[in-house]
């Protein structure tokens, strides 16, 4: 959906004589759509770390190439620090613990050893995990004087040995941070304890489904070993809040199983539900599979935002899936489940959890996803 918006903006800007470059996972995913739009002078495919100087030089000499693509995955050694001093921080949501600044995004690795059907990360960043030197990560945090951090890694514990070393290096800094974990962390209590001790207060967890058939079908079988109860108990023991990402509309899902999933999340005291509708993103194995099966309803990419049904589910109609999704999303943020969650919290965290629950409840009633916002749509 961001690519669609970028295309619309680029067309207007090019009409005024501007030069436009698009890059990143969006350009990679929707390469054909972007090329056919004729909205951009240049497309950058893949990681641009080792390309960017050439792109700038070509831009200065008015000889931009139509396509730039890295020949290999770059090493993440001595990357320049992001120039956050060039942005207007007032335009970003403030941190809870640093009222003058937003949460600071920091990257420690790229790549993912898994290859989930619905995900593009492995295709884009590769299956081998590449790490930044921990000394570089710590130096960047110190450079920005960051107090509240979000690690942008798709899985902060993909390499437990690296994670352990990183967590120990973070501990003296006194920062608070948020990161993405996979569910295998509940089998590593020592690593989870280290995460808490070095400042992790919230974990984004790719639970995706509590039905093992769905997990196996989506190539996410590593999640099969961990029940929702085990996950909830492990995180509650270390006092780290869980933001559970759940995908609805998988091939074994029904309206009844979706309802059972939300009830199980409430029963096991999961702190935040972040549900999505299965979306066959271009560039993923899921897209190729559904395209072959004739299950994709349309290719208006402005609606490929994981809150609209753009394919034919196996055990529901598109309308049934959409209605069940929003109904159960609202159910999780009703008064009784909110009170039940708050009773499990330490006194210091109750107000923060209550604030988020009320905020989410308000938006979901309007059919606005708290983690996505309003959809940018274009006419087909």
Notable features of this structure?
single chain, 380 residues, alpha/beta, 6-stranded parallel β-sheet, 3-stranded parallel β-sheet, 15 helices, globular
Report what the structure shows.
This protein has 380 residues and is an alpha/beta fold. 40% of the residues lie in helices and 13% in strands. It is built from 15 helices and eleven strands. It has helices spanning 2-14, 25-29, 31-37, 52-60, 121-125, 134-144, 160-170, 189-197, 212-217, 228-238, 255-267, 285-293, 318-332, 335-342, 347-365; strands spanning 21-23, 42-45, 67-69, 104-106, 109-110, 130-131, 148-151, 176-181, 200-208, 241-248, 272-277. The strands form three sheets. A six-stranded parallel sheet has the order 4-7-8-9-10-11. A three-stranded parallel sheet has the order 1-2-3. Strands 5-6 form a two-stranded antiparallel ribbon. Helix 7 (160-170) packs parallel to helix 8 and helix 11 (255-267) packs parallel to helix 13. The longest helix has 19 residues, at 347-365. It is globular.
């Amino acid at each position: 959906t961001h690519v669609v918006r970028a295309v619309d903006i680029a067309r207007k800007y090019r009409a005024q004589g501007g030069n436009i470059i698009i890059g990143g996972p969006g350009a990679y995913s929707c390469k054909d759509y972007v090329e056919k739009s004729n909205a951009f002078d240049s497309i950058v495919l893949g990681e641009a770390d080792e390309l960017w100087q050439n792109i700038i030089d070509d831009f200065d000499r008015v000889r931009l190439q139509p396509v730039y693509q890295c020949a290999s995955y770059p090493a993440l050694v001595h990357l320049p620090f992001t120039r956050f001093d060039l942005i207007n921080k007032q335009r970003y949501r403030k941190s809870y613990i640093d009222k003058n600044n937003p949460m600071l995004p920091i990257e420690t690795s790229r790549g993912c050893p898994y290859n989930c059907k619905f995900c593009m990360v492995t295709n884009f960043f590769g299956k081998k995990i590449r790490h930044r030197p921990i000394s570089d990560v710590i130096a960047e945090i110190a450079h920005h004087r960051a107090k509240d951090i979000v690690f942008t890694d798709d899985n902060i514990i993909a390499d437990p040995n690296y994670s352990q070393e990183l967590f120990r290096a973070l501990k003296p800094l006194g920062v608070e941070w948020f990161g993405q974990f996979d569910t295998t962390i509940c089998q590593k209590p020592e690593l989870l304890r280290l995460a808490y001790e070095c400042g992790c207060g919230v974990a984004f967890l790719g639970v995706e489904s509590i039905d093992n058939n769905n997990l196996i079908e989506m190539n996410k079988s590593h999640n099969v070993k961990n029940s929702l109860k085990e996950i909830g108990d492990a995180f509650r023991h270390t006092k780290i809040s869980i933001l559970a990402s759940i995908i609805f509309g998988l091939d074994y899902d029904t309206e009844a199983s979706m309802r059972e999933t939300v009830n199980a999340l409430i029963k096991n005291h999961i702190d935040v539900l972040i549900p999505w509708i299965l979306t066959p993103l271009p560039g993923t194995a899921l897209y190729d599979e559904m395209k072959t099966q004739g299950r994709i309803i349309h290719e208006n990419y402005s609606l490929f935002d994981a809150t609209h049904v753009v394919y034919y589910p196996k055990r529901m109609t598109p309308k049934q899936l959409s209605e069940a999704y929003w109904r159960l999303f609202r159910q999780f943020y009703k008064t009784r489940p909110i009170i039940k969650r708050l009773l499990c919290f330490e006194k210091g965290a109750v107000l923060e959890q209550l604030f988020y629950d009320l905020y989410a409840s308000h938006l979901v009633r309007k059919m606005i996803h708290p983690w996505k916002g309003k959809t940018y749509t274009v006419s087909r």
